[in-house]
Design a protein that fits this description.
Endonuclease III, domain 1; binds iron/sulfur cluster; about 55% helix; elongated; about 0% strand; 2 domains; Endonuclease Iii, domain 2; mainly alpha
């Protein structure tokens, strides 16, 4: 059974929350608000997961490198043939550059990405006997792997909690008043203090899912948003439920609109990633 979301705030209570957050809410108040938002996100996205397809840590590392400036959907179209052609780190190390570039061309920036993949394969073979390491310190020393990618790999391939801060994650948590920090490492630390460590990987999925489906950069679907009662940015997008419903994207649209009290009739958004 679907648990209904909290009702939309009226204009006055939305303004009060925005003012309180802008003035610097108490740490207890923020922790409670974040807790309510996390529970709402968990109810909205019970199946939230890494949207890149993979079956090994190396495959996830490769897919994450390819996902730079590219949708996960496009990456998932490319990787089956890629993973079949290059099953091991040594295969990437020895790859014919032209052939590799051709396979990954649809993901964009294919020359730089090919350099990263060949370098990654060589480094994993030389430094780690062909096995991708499972620590942040070792991962970030590998070609093509920064802190964000390392946390994706740790959280999703090794089951080690990690917060994945990309530009979308930073934009959303600042919009929600979870932190004012701009620097990704500081954002990661601030959110890490607000969220229990066991939830770090899932919070990354929840935030990314909500950003892709509801809380869009330019026109968020505030009028059907499950976080509305706790969001200081409520009203950034349309607050009228019917208008907002048309902005919801992705396969969970019907479920999200049901949570907002709208029937299945208004559920067909354009779908896909932002
Ligand atoms: S959609 Fe609107 S109410 Fe929901 S989280 Fe985004 S800005 Fe806040």
């Amino acid at each position: 059974m679907t648990t209904p979301a909290r009702p939309l705030p009226d204009r006055r209570s939305a303004a009060k929350l925005a003012a309180r957050v802008a003035a610097g809410e108490s740490s207890l108040g923020r922790a409670r608000r974040v807790g309510r938002m996390l529970r709402a996100l968990a109810a909205a996205y019970p199946d939230a997961h890494c949207e890149l397809d993979f079956s090994t840590p190396l495959e996830l590392a490769v897919a994450t490198i390819l996902s730079a400036q590219c949708t996960d959907k496009r990456v998932n179209e490319v990787t089956p043939a890629l993973f079949a052609r290059y099953p091991t780190a040594l295969d990437y190390a020895k790859a014919d550059r032209a052939e590799l570039e051709e396979l990954i061309r649809p993901t964009g920036f294919f020359r730089n990405k090919a350099t990263s993949l060949i370098g990654l394969g060589a480094a994993v073979v030389e430094r780690h006997d062909g096995v991708l390491p499972a620590t942040l310190d070792e991962l970030v020393k590998l070609p093509g792997i920064g802190r964000k990618t390392a946390n994706v790999i740790l959280g999703n391939a090794f089951g080690i909690p990690g917060i994945t801060v990309d530009t979308h994650f930073g934009r959303l948590v600042r919009r929600w008043g979870w932190t004012d920090e701009q620097d990704p490492v500081k954002v990661e630390q601030a959110v890490g203090e607000l969220v229990p460590k066991r939830d770090w990987t899932m919070v990354s999925h929840y935030v990314i899912f909500h950003g892709r489906r509801v809380c869009h950069a330019r026109k968020p679907a505030c009028g059907v948003c499950t976080l509305a009662a706790d969001c200081p940015a409520f009203g950034t997008g349309p607050t009228d439920p019917e208008q907002a419903a048309a902005l919801v994207k992705g396969p969970e649209a019907a479920h999200l609109l049901a949570l907002a009290g709208l029937g299945a009739a208004a559920t067909e958004g354009p779908g896909g990633e932002e």
